[in-house]
Amino acid sequence: MWKIVADAVPQMAAAGIKYTIPIALVSFAIGLIIALITALTRISVRKGFWITFAKGFASFYVWLFRSTPLLVQLFIVFFGLPSLIIPGIFPHGIKLDPVIAGIITFSLNTGAYCAETIRAALLSIDHGQWEAAYSVGLPRRLVLREIIIPQALRTAVPPLSNSFISLVKDTSLAASITIVEMFQVSQQIAAENYQPLLMYSLVALLYAVVCTVLTWGQRYLEKVTSRYTSNVQTTQL
User: Domain ABC transmembrane type-1: where (predicted)?
Assistant: First the structure.
């Protein structure tokens, strides 16, 4: 048994370094950008047709990706889009590399969930701070960048960190679209040595180790942002 473990663990770890972690990092980074844009769009107080349209589209996007399973979204992007034929643009359908399809899907899914987290964090800041900043002539862009977002960060860090940890675990679904990440490797090895319980337990342990390290990182970030918030409050007093 120990020989099987010694042979399997390096292969799973290599797959994690090559695919699991990079896919999670890239998807989360893109997802955060999408989430910030979506959240700012939804809390915009500007008027006009295009602003209203953008707010409606942002709300629809969040609803769509939060209301459908991630596995189904992966299948639509990877297996479904190739059948979407658009004459003159995509005459043979939209065919994506498995990794690209995975990153796109994970990014959009993460963006939808993180958008609600960021929106709630921004709205949690007392409205009086907006009014005080506007009263001294600061534009909305500076108010967000210098006053609101730094304070909202403290509220958003824990749920955003949880979203990233969940994303790392969700990358196991990428095996369903032929990406050879950790879970896919464990399946392949189990098919060779006929030890599914051992292989799946090993890959679960590897995910647990990675998520534990990320949890330690989350606690450190919370301490850092707490010190920042404390300094801001002390300065205000």
Answer: 17-215
Residues 26-61: pLDDT tens digits? 999 999 999 999 999 998 878 888 899 999 999 999
Task: Write the CA distances from 158 to 145, 148, 149, 174, 223, integer angstroms.
Answer: 20, 17, 15, 25, 11
Q: Which residues are within 8 A (CB) of 167 and not within 5 positions of it... i.e. 6 or more apart?
A: 24, 27, 28, 31, 106, 110
What is the Cα gyration radius of the chain? Answer: 22
Token pair for 14: 């290599």
In the beta sheet, which residues pair with residue 86? 90
Single-letter residue type at 25: L
Question: Which contacts of 35-38 are long-range, i.e. CB under 8 A and separated by 24 or more positions?
Answer: 35/110, 35/111, 35/112, 35/113, 35/114, 35/115, 35/117, 35/118, 36/115, 36/118, 38/62, 38/111, 38/112, 38/115, 38/119
- Give the Cα separation of 224 and 210 in Å (integer): 21
Check whether 146 has a pLDDT greater than 50: yes
Would you say how long the chain is, in residues? 237
Which residues are CB-contacts of 182 (< 8 A; sequence separation ≥ 6)? 12, 13, 15, 16, 19, 20, 172, 203, 206, 207
Q: Which residues are registered as beta bridge partners of 90?
A: 86
For residue 17, pLDDT over 80 is answered with yes
